[in-house]
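Human: Here is a favour to ask of a fellow structure person. Comparing notes only helps if you start from a blank page. Give me a protein, with the fold worked out from its sequence. Please set it down just below, with no commentary around it:

Assistant:
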Amino acid sequence: MEKITLETSLSEAMKNPMAKDLFDAITSLFDIDINKFRKSKVAKLKVKSIKGLTAGVIDKKTLEYACDLLNSEKNSIVDDRSAKIEEKWWKEAVFYQIYPRSFKDSDGDGVGDIRGIIEKLDYLKELGVDCIWCSPMYKSPNDDNGYDISDYYEIMSEFGTMADFDELLDEVHKRGMKLIMDLVINHTSDEHEWFEQAKQSKDNKYHDYYIWKDDDGTKTPPNDWQSLFKGSAWNYYENLDQWALHLFSKKQMDLNWENPKMRQDIYKMINWWLNKGIDGFRMDVINFISKWQNFPNSVPLVQHIFGFSGTEWYFYGPRLHEFLHELNMQAFKGRDCVSVGECGGLGLETSKLLTADNRNELSMVFNFDHLDNLPHGRYDDYHYDFRIAIKHLVKWQMNYGNRCWPTLFFENHDNPRITSKADKYFAFRDEISKLCATVQLTFRGAPFIYQGQEIAMANGDFNSVEDLRDVEAINMFVELVEKGKTPQQAFEKVMCGTRDHARTPMQWDDSKNAGFTDGTPWIKVNKDSFVYNVKDQLTREDSPLNYYKKLIKLRKENKAFIYGTFELIKSNRIDVQDSDILCFERELNDEKFIVEINMVRRTRKRFLEIENLELVASSYDYPAKTLRPYECNIYKVVH
């Protein structure tokens, strides 16, 4: 990889995978075609010219920082145009994420548990689920709802016992399904035995399992990095006169991946779970495990744009590929399992490097760029536009290649419900839910359905900060009030993006507490559960739930939706409204399907000729000449 300097041309710099992703993000933000940009006169300019082009907003020092970051990438762009797609069970599977605390309570304590999951396995099988992903169930003090693990080898007592887990795994496999666990190995709880030992002495063998920096005599943190949950990313320990790093809450201490002994203990634990029979892992913030070891201060412009200090020095660290390859070789090699990395901040090219099947790192990654319409973020109050989101997803369909496999999702445990983001007044709640199902189940990739998404669950009904359980949102509320916002203003801000929206109890029926628990739920049940619930939707043929079931069945019966080519169908007429419609075909061997999606809340004239097409699924229950709001139709080409 040729070194990038201030004298390098922009077009040459874009041969670097990280640089290409950076330019792709910038051009997308301004709706500029990156391929046209590469051929433009601007692309011939040198990196140093960016200072003038931005009127000094991006100064020389920032450009030098950027060159350092980009030069940490030693790999070339993945070229797999001639590669053949390798068939795998996880490429064909429909995944379903369970947030155990909110799924089903079996013992009346108000907290979902493992036996509650077992109780609902037949429902998941009937839905068409192939693989269940459970958010963390390990022993934890629950500072961040289980993402702060204190013992990797024990089950959280609120959820049950290891015997309960073994029964769950056995019952899942009996039904022909698979089970993957959530794995958090960027950090542990400060109550983990390793950290309990580490903070006792600098000479303790576990001390270097974590990231420590000596105090310089000023009792100020080693650098200006901020926790993603607000405040400094460093805790001071007076007995050691040292600071320890935590990128998340003050109780989530970052592991030192530079320490080979620590890595070996992690691999030992992973193999223990795989030997038990689980089918893989979803790996939390796995792209954060490699940090720049000089721990530099943040780049001011990056902090100004993204609101966080220091992320540029660990979101894609210099040894990330090395660590992931080693993990793969020592834990996953030779096993028929799946690894899915949560990799926020990475672009298409860097994601390809992490997942290409000839590089032996991860199976798939989650990219989150489509979950918000940039430059908006999760805590912004705005109308979510599917045209922007789907344009991003289509780019990955067209460019991710044959060696890599995309993930397809609109919801998870960390984001507000898509039905509320796209339509806060719920005029088209069912239609939006069905649109998401159509995209996830007809695009190429692995669909991940989050619990409740299949019944169009909406955001939570929270009235005050006292109703919240999300440590991130609560910390943000406190910080906003400290900065001068009124409590009401601060609450309205955090309500836009709190993770608690996705964590309200699953709505099983119209009884008290939605059939989730006989006790007092750990978090409020949505008021609309008497209308939106599994029991009711199973009886309604046109419900979102039955639409999901129909499309899952269609995908399973037609491999064109899995391994088939993806080609856009463009309009031959001149009509500005045609940009509101997405049409594409999936083809494998002699099997061809065409999908038609109206991406907006307004009626549109279709441009697709449908005379020789057989309608096999529709998000509306009767045909019409025009495309209605968010309408989706799937046709089979009749020969």
About this structure: The CA atoms of residues 276 and 538 lie 35 Å apart. The longest strand covers residues 581-588.
